[in-house]
Amino acid sequence: MRRIQAGNVLSAFGLGFTVPYLYVYVAQVRDLGAGTAGAVLAVFAMAALVVLPFTGRAIDRRGPLPVLVGAALLAAAGALGMGLAGSVVTVVGSAALLGAGTAVMQPALATMIVWCSSTATRTRAFATQFFLQNLGLGVGGLIGGQLVDESRPGSFLLLFSIEAAMFLVLAGIAATVTMPSTPSIGQTPKDEKPRGGLRALVGHRAMVQLCVLGFVLFFACYGQFESGLAAYGTEAAGIEPSALGMALAANTAVIVAAQFLVLRFVERRRRTRVIAWVGLIWTVAWLIAGYAGLGHGSQAMATGAFIATYGLFGLGEAMLSPTVAPLVADLAPESMVGQYNSAFALVKQLALAVGPAVGGPMGAALHGPYIVTFVLFSLGITVLALRLGRKLTPAQDHPYLVAKSRVVAQHRPKRAVETAA
C-alpha cells in the first residue's frame, strides 16, 4: 500500500507540472492558435472517454498491475511527445496518449488499493490517496509555475520531461509491488471471460444510483472550478485573475488541512448521510458565491466570499474522498472490481466534459440562473444520497459499525457465554 500511494503522489506531482499550462503552451509558446489549444484539451478529455469502457475488463482479466504499468508508459510517451511537438498533428497525438494513459491509471490504482485493503481500512486508504493527489498536484503546480517561462520553449520541455519521468517512476514502483491473490484473477482462467459485464453492472440498481449521484457530484463541483465558476467570478463578481489563484489555493489548503480531521467523523457515520451533508455544504457554498456576484457588496467582500466558496467545496471534497470510492469497491463483486471502478471513472469523466460546456456560458452571461441551477443540483445531491441509503446493506453504508459489532461478538467474555448456555 505504501508503494502504491508513493507512486500515486509522484504521478500527481508530474501532472501538476503541466496541466495548468497546456493551453498557454499550445496556443502561445508553440504558436498554434487558440483553436488548436482548445482541440488539444478536448482530445485530452475524449481519449479518456474512449479507453475507459475497455479498461475495467482488462483490469479484471489481467490484474490492475500490468494495466497500471502500461498506462504509465503510455502517459510518459505522451508527455515527452508533448514537450517535443511542434505541429498540430504531433500535439494532438501526444494529447491523446497523455489523456488515455492518465485516465486508465485512475481505476487501476483504485483497484490496487481495494486489493491491498480490507473493508475496515479502505476508508482511510482512499482518504490518503486523495490527500496525496491534491498535495502532489499543488506542489507540482507551485514548482512548475516557478520554472515556466513563455519566452523560453525549453522551459516547457523541462516541465514535460519531468512529468514523463514521474510516470516512469510510477511504472517502476508499481512493477515492484507484489499483489495479494484474489478470486477475480486467481480463479478465472485466462481464456475465459469473467462473469458479469456491462449487463450485470446496469442491473445493479444501487450501483446505477451511485453513478447518477456521482455524475451530479462531479458536474456540480469539479466541472465548474475552471469554467463556469471562474467565468461567474470574473464577470459577475469582478474577481481579479490573481484572486482565482488564491481561491484554488484555498481549496487545496482546506483539503490538505481537513482531510484527516474529518476522517474520524466520516468513518463513524453512514456513508450516504455524509454525502447528504456534502450536498448541504455545497448549497451554502453556492449561496455565498451568489452573494459575491449579486450581493452588491464591496470588492473585498466579494473576493472574500468567492474564496470562501472554494474553501467550502474543499471541505466537501475531503468528506467525499473516504466515502464514495470505498462504496464503489464494496458494491462490486470480487470478479468485477475493475469494471465498477472504470464505470465510475467514466461517469466522472463525462461530468467533467459536460460541466464546463454547460456551466461556462451560464456563468459568463446568466448569473442569477447559474447560481439557482447549482443550488438545486447541490440539494439534489442530498436527496439522491438519502435515496441511495435505502438500497445499501448495513455493511455497505456503515462498515465501521458492522466491524465494531463483529469485534465485540468475537471477544464476548467466556463467563457470559457459559451463563447464557
Tag the structure with descriptive keywords:
421 residues; mainly alpha; 20 helices; 82% helix; globular; disordered C terminus
Would you write up a description of this structure?
There is one protein chain. The protein is mainly alpha-helical and 421 residues long. The protein is built from 20 helices and no strands. The two termini are 44 Å apart.
How does the SSE layout of this entry go?
Layout: H1 2-18, H2 22-29, H3 33-62, H4 64-84, H5 88-115, H6 119-147, H7 153-175, H8 183-186, H9 198-202, H10 205-220, H11 228-235, H12 241-267, H13 271-294, H14 299-320, H15 324-331, H16 337-365, H17 367-389, H18 394-397, H19 399-410, H20 414-420
Helix pairs in contact: 1-6, 1-7, 2-3, 3-4, 3-5, 3-16, 4-5, 4-7, 5-16, 6-12, 10-16, 10-17, 11-16, 12-14, 13-14, 13-17, 15-16, 16-17
Major beta-sheet overview: none
Mean pLDDT: 80
Q: What is the number of helices?
A: 20
Structural class: mainly alpha
Query: How far apart, in Å, are the first and last alpha carbons?
Result: 44 Å
Question: Helical amount among residues, as a percent range?
Answer: over 70%
Could you write a compact summary of the structure shown?
The chain has about 425 residues and is an all-alpha fold. Helix content is about 80%, strand content about 0%.
